[in-house]
Design goal:
single chain; 0% strand; rod-shaped; 70 residues; mainly alpha
Length: 70
């Protein structure tokens, strides 16, 4: 009357491979998520810096235009 446990596969070493896979997922996913967040943060910062520079140049052009009209 022994029933097979869900972790008992027909593959030798199957439960051990499953545990190794779970450990890699639990440790690897957070590392990849942090790395992706860092890349997105630094990429976004450079885009913002470019956008700020464009807006400052536009403000300067508009100020020059107002000074010319006066």
């Amino acid at each position: 009357m022994l029933t097979a446990l869900p972790a008992q596969f027909g593959v030798p070493g199957g439960p051990e491979l499953l545990i190794i896979l779970l450990v890699l997922l639990l440790l690897g996913v957070p590392v990849v998520a942090v790395a992706a967040a860092a890349v997105l943060l630094f990429r976004g910062r450079s885009d913002r810096d470019e956008r700020i520079a464009e807006l400052e140049a536009e403000v300067e052009r508009l100020r020059d235009r107002l000074d010319d009209e006066e």
